Amino acid sequence: MGTGTFAEPAFSGLLAAGHDVPCLVTQPGKEKQSNARGSTRQTGEGMEALAARHGVPVWRPVSINAPESVERLEAFAADLLVVAAYGQILKPEVLGAAKLGGINLHASLLPRHRGAAPVAWAIASGDTETGVSVIRMTPALDAGEVIGVGKTPIGPDETAGALEARLALIAADLAVESVGNLASGTVRGILQDQSLVTRAPKLNKLMGDLDWEKDAPFLARWVRAMQPWPTAYTTLHRQGQPPLRLLVAGAEALPSGGGGAPGEIQRPPADLAHLPVCCSHGVLALKVVQPAGKGAMTAAAFLRGRPWAQGDRMARGG
Fold first, then answer.
1. How many other β-carbons are positioned within 10 Å of the β-carbon of residue 247?
2. What is the pLDDT of residues 45-79, one digit of tens each?
């Protein structure tokens, strides 16, 4: 059961390992839409294309929890449901349709970052390490026993897209290993520590709007967490000019500077290597931006076309 490209390596791995996969369950019409907007973090072959290449039937139920869907699942007489980036919460009736219930491949070190966007929140939170957890599925979100874990460091400049692509490969190895352990009866589950639970809520477009009241290190992480979707952005205000929306594709926190009001643009360096914006604490150096209706460009290219002037500022909400 999977829709996003995070699930593709695991699906391929299970097929390559010789497991009998009687059906791919995926979201109706969502795969092409999510690939088109880039929200699944990486570009892949597509779950349905993989299924077709291996002769696996595809099923796209509007609701996997509907009574007729549960009946169809039961008819497969499957041993196990393997779930990764599927997009629907599974009710107990669905989990009960397979002999061993379901396992989920979750892109965090549970119980940290339970929820729909664990990769982005791991980066935004300043974590230096993350990974993939394989859990026995329960009705509570991401709360089941952990039966497999793979860890990896988070690179200092890594975006959510790049990190998720790496985590997908870790998830593939864990999926094959965990299914094999379940088949042999050698799995030991570990209960999650409820005192360590943090949440990773679903992203939306408004979350990309940079809040200059935050500190510069946080905003630098936030820019990376928002790539490739929904993408960080801000609005440039210049005297006598209409507001200009800027997507921010590259930025870093400067080790020194600041002192201006949040959102105030300081004088750029002589080489125009970045566009410095004051935060609540510190300065965020914008290095790659994309003005509305234009392509992405370096700060230098942007500033040559729109020279800095005293009083220029960035703000939220346009």
1. 20
2. 899 999 999 999 999 999 999 999 999 999 999 99
